[in-house]
Design goal:
The structure holds two protein chains of two kinds. Chain A is an alpha/beta fold. In chain A, 30% of the residues lie in helices and 28% in strands. Chain A is globular. The N and C termini of chain B lie far apart (42 Å). Chains A and B meet through strand 7 and helix 2 of A and helix 6, helix 7 and helix 10 of B.
Amino acid sequence: MLRVDLEKRLCDFRLSLEFQSVESGITALFGPSGSGKTTVLNLIAGLVRPDRGRISVNGRVLFDAEKKIDLKPEERRIGYVFQEGRLFPHLSVKGNLLYGLRILPEGERRLRPREVIDLMGIGRLLDRRPYSLSGGEKQRVAIGRALLTSPRLLLMDEPLASLDPERKKEVLPFLAGLRSELHLPILYVSHAPDEVKRLADRVLFVAHGRLVKDVPAEEAFPSPNGAPC
Amino acid sequence: MLTPLEKEALELSIRVSALALAGILPPGILAAWVLGRYRFPGKTLLDGFVHLPLVLPPVVTGYLLLVFLGRRGVLGSFLYDTLGITLAFSWKGAAVASGVMAFPLLVRAVRLSVESLDAGLESAARTLGAGPVRVFFTITLPLISPGILTGALLAFARSLGEFGATITFASNIPGETRTLPIALYSLIQTPEGETAAARLCVISIVVSLAALAASDILSKKLTRRLRG
């Protein structure tokens, strides 16, 4: 489980958040663009340093301003799927997938390449280069690459935002599969209600760098007539 | 086809330029990376210092090298006393002079590709468990390699043509520091040297074109490997 209590000032924007994720499954961070969602992910991943606060995953402290604990991004064991995929253009799909796995000590590997490749349906793509992949394929490879580092927490920054509706439909089942197949907390940033409704177990509403509402998914977007959708 | 004198000058030029390039590649890539990636106090100063050989008259650069690296110079006397190395008036000195002159060109080319590199890829590698050193060698370096190649060619060509700093620091010694341009200069000073000078001129053009073609082929190969 992820526990976060953070403060960060960026120019005239002030972020101040306290929340915890669900034990296993998808916690959605939902809010308009510019509400600080991506910054939260970067703070958790260790790519941006908080001004104050504490971050822990399953009881392991990653950052604690008071105790001067600040683990480097490579020590945090957090998988991060970026909005634009960020596949390494000079490596094949296989090279991308194995990049993190090769660094991980043998004993720490909880997921085998075969399982992840099957889960993401990317078996046919292994020898291709990132430039030749469609947007949806890129995102599936990026998710696979992050999963293969056997993360304790998976961060996903609008993984569907750059995709057209057809591609979204293609990737959504794989995301739903993640939730049911892996025992892993996932923090999922989005500003699309339909995605959140479909995937999330819990929804955190964020606006202007603050937490506005924290509700179970079924209460997040009540349908106007009260009927189940 | 080539006279012994031409062969000597050509071989020396290539040897000098190759050593110069090998010497400036690591610090050049480092300087380009630091200048292209980070903001720090004194950055303008470092940038200016790197560009100095480009804007100074080459003779001034050669003279400064003589002052610092000559046998009685600050660094030169240290090198001579501890390692027994004399740079001034030797072919290694010629390599130092042409390396210094080529340095800014290398840094400029590499810096351009450092600046156009998406830092997000490096962050992504960090989140996958790679430390900064591994990220540099597995992500940064391969992705800026086209810039390194371009910079290396520019630097090599600049070294081949280096005249002012070389003749000031390393002088004009046949077989030791008389590189192609210096040999050409000597021939022009000699009565009846026109034909020989013209031949050297053609040799220079051929060597430069060959370097250009080689880099072009390599760069296409690299780009194919990077983009697929």
